[in-house]
Design brief:
By secondary structure, the protein is an all-alpha fold. It contains 10 helices and 2 strands.
Length: 267
């Protein structure tokens, strides 16, 4: 890893990072507020049979319990948009984007190996994703405290929630970096990475809305991020292990392929 490149990469992203952290904190605070304001109403609609319970769920989250509301907040498309800026956008542009602009050759002309560049970018993206997730969790904790619901959750487990979330988004970031080192253009790398994320999200939502095919959720990385369960003391180590494998496979691929591949002359 190269410290100078790491610091420069973080500096380039500092404005986006501050904006996303502020937005994430506010979004995190909103979930407990919505739960307190509308949770009983949602339960009443389901109990009355007016609306099926499946339609009031979103992925692994819902507004029937506080833990379900927090899970929903961390799996909502808003959260995907916030974290995806770095987990998808920054990763696919890191190598393929530099290659497309013709600036990767300038970077490689310095005494930096391809593995060093890859590991430095991966470290920078990990830091950026971590800070956005921390802002989300901080917002949720603040919202829970403001609403006086702290006794309903085991906040001591919060570090495990952070690790679980970082592993899941790290898996998408690792895939994005693997796509980035594979292609010479930004568009195909972005397309493949977005398809990977959307397929995972589709499987999670499909299983939550259609109970006959709820087995599809097991094949989604989103389903193995369960903040609500962790905060209620239910930790499944299988989720952590599976997400670690989902990170390790694309990382190994990138570390093997990127140093070996020929870079065509930029057009």
């Amino acid at each position: 890893m190269n410290l100078r490149l790491l610091v420069q990469t973080l500096r380039w992203n500092r404005v986006r990072l501050l904006i996303l952290m502020a937005a994430s904190f506010g979004w995190g605070m909103l979930m407990p507020v919505i739960y307190v304001a509308f949770g009983d109403a949602f339960k009443g609609l389901v109990d009355s049979g007016v609306i099926p319970a499946e339609l009031m769920s979103f992925g692994s989250g819902n507004f029937f319990t506080l833990s379900g509301a927090l899970t929903l907040g961390l799996q909502h498309p808003m959260t995907i948009a916030f974290v995806g800026v770095f987990a998808v956008g920054s990763t696919v542009a890191a190598i393929a984007g530099e290659r497309e602009r013709g600036t990767l050759e300038v970077l490689l002309a310095r005494p930096l190996s391809r593995r060093t560049i890859y590991l430095t970018v991966a470290t920078a993206v990990t830091i950026l994703i971590s800070l956005v997730i921390l802002a989300l969790l901080a917002g949720q904790v603040a919202g829970v405290a403001i609403q006086g619901l702290s006794d309903e959750l085991d906040l001591v487990q919060l570090p495990l929630v952070f690790v679980n979330g970082l592993l899941m988004w790290g898996a998408f970031a690792a895939f994005g970096l693997a796509a980035s080192v594979t292609f010479d253009r930004h568009a195909p790398a972005l397309g493949v990475t977005m398809a990977y994320l959307l397929v995972n999200y589709f499987l999670e939502i499909l299983g939550s809305l259609w109970r006959d095919v709820d087995w599809t959720q097991q094949y989604s990385l989103f389903h193995h991020f369960q903040p609500g369960s962790i905060l209620t003391g239910k930790v499944d180590l299988f989720d952590f292990g599976l997400l670690a494998v989902a990170i390790g496979a694309p990382v190994a691929f990138a570390l093997i392929v990127f140093p070996r591949r020929d870079l065509a002359a930029p057009s």
